[in-house]
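Discussion board: Methods & Data

I've been asked by a reviewer to show the raw model output for two of the constructs in my manuscript, not just the figures. I'm not sure how much to include, so I'm pasting the format here to get opinions. Each protein appears as its amino acid sequence followed by a line of discrete structure tokens. Is this the kind of thing reviewers expect to see in a supplement, or should I convert it first? Here is construct A:
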Amino acid sequence: MDRFICVTCGTQFQDSEAPPAECPICTDPRQYVPPEGQQWTTLTELATDHHNDIRAEGDLVGIGTEPSFAIGQRALLVPFGDSNLLWDCITLLDDASAEEVEHRGGLAAIAISHPHYYSGMVEWAHRFSCPIYLHGADADWVMRPDPAIEHWDGDLKELGRGLTLVRGGGHFPGGTMLHRAEGAGVLLTGDIIQVIPDRTHVGFMWSYPNLIPLPETAVQGIAAAVEPFEFDVIYGAWWGRVIPSGAKEIVRRSAERYGAALRGEVEARAPAGSA
């Protein structure tokens, strides 16, 4: 028996004698099966040529796999009392990573933005004996059910110590963000709100790899979900995807720009000095 892992999205499945016939997360139109077809690995195989890089990411600590694996997101350690909350998740968990996280206070909980980052969440939860908080609207996308998973409903879940889970929907019905109230406020968004190369704006999509947009009402709903919270900083899903200041206003004007683009009201500017 093995717990097979989808190479394209990094999701670990429950014990089976053979790989699953398909990965439902990748056959969904928000993701994709590559031209060469579905491929599988295991945690043991992955650890033979991959390792985790644990380093500072802004004021937090990030954990990402090298060389990049599957979707390539990095997780974040968010201070949570004397311990940490792991925001989003990655597939690989090895002894070196576990020891480093323990050295930094261990994990009291895991929370994940949406199914593309469920990855190896049960491995992490078992190693640190902690719960996983997932929105109930996305329960059908759990490929390795486990008692550590706690589904929550509604639009908000207060975790305590200044941390709140906020359902924004959009990318998935249960698409979740994490608000940290400390200081001027921080919002961790996965890619429910996407940090894009132009840090003066953020992005919103139903499918990022397949370039399928959201309806304007969904984008306005995401913006409305975070409007009651104060936040100056946004952490996205990948290394370096951080907006260091002015984030709340950036979300507001990005939602407005999105609607204007759908209505055909955004025009490209001509280069300065052109005829």
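Construct B, same format:
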Amino acid sequence: MAGIGPGSAGDITGAVLEAIGRADVVIGYKYYFQFIEPYLKPGAGCIDTGMMRERERAEQAFEQAEQGRTVCIISSGDAGIYGMAPLVMEMKKERNSSVKVEVLPGISAFQRAASLLGAPVGHDFCVISLSDLMTPWAKIETRIKAAAAADFVTAVYNPKSHGRYWQLYRLQEIFLKHRSSETPVGLVRQGGREDQSVSITTLAGLNPEQVDMFTVVIIGNSQSYIADGKFITPRGYYREKAGDTAGIGQEIMTESFHTIEGLLRKPDIPLGRKWALLHAIHTTADFDMENILSVDDGAVETLYEGFAAGRIKTIVTDVTMVASGIRKGALKRLGVEVKCYLGDERVAAMAAEKGITRTQAGIRLAVEEHPDALYAFGNAPTALMELCALIRAGKAAPAGIIAAPVGFVHVCESKHMVKPFKEIPKIIVEGRKGGSNIAATLCNAVLTFDDATDLKPGRDV
């Protein structure tokens, strides 16, 4: 058994050429004889069995070998990768044959394709055939989902034929649920042959109508990128050299977000709401967030645009724990200041004088100095109720409200009180659940909304 590579004389290994030169008989599909004829020994015969007649090919090989001839069965690419080697091994067992079988590796089509594209297979990868002639489609789809979820670089064989026109569309649909729409995709047709063509697109830009049976498709992982026209999947050497633990943290967070998205009951929701929801579930590991997180239409998008344009310059929090959980890198990048008045020396005096809680007093001071900030509540329902009263009195016009106080007293009521302010973008954790960590992560979701399309969170981790 010899793999003769993808179709170029230069891709045939020396060991395979030697085996062909020793063979009395070469058996294979006639198209491939043109690549090995110059290396045949005088008098050697070539037996063509035609396409789709692999079993007959193997039977003829055993018949010839059992008569004492040296036989070489040739396969394109590597004989052990979607080639003849498994069939020959099984047939040897079935026939209880004493014929010695040797498998010589060849360069597979995906390896040639990868070399033409750059270095797309630089990390863990898999190869999937979309041909369902001998494998049920249900099993193929299970493998596709596993490869997509596990972030494997994925090479696709037999992507399309005249009769199988929809399978690559389905693969693309599955991968888009787990990978960024900008994930690089390489297309190599007739790699290593005179009429080869090489192109690079994205997962969203992939057009299955431009693909045929002679095309190998390679889909990158979450780290793959394009540089100088080359498709690269990094192994991690530069990250290790730089000691970039933030990069590792972002990889973990990205993988977590893809996992969460795959477990959502209703993933087809507006991107702003999904981005906030993914942050909330990632922080709490609580999928009930899918039921209780209320996000006004366009709230995340509107608030992010306000920060990016410099219209919103301040986030006010009810307690310091919320402030400490908001990412400093995102704040610095957007020029945003976080204020919590709970420790302000004026707060205790006001609280004592007015007979109110310190968090209420903090909100009163905050509204005097930053009436148009984004207000985020993760602890004190009384602070949220105070803000509502100040809005009704015309003393505050917040850019937005994140309402996630937690507890059992006045918590639900405080969240109901904020809902009538239809003109204010709001993100609310309904019911008794909430907390400083959720309020902070919802702020982070807003500040990093520009990463939502690619589903790559954690830039500032």
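Answer (T.O., handling editor elsewhere):
This is acceptable in a supplement if you add a one-line summary per construct. For B, something like: The domain at 109-232 is CATH 3.30.950.10 (Methyltransferase, Cobalt-precorrin-4 Transmethylase; Domain 2).
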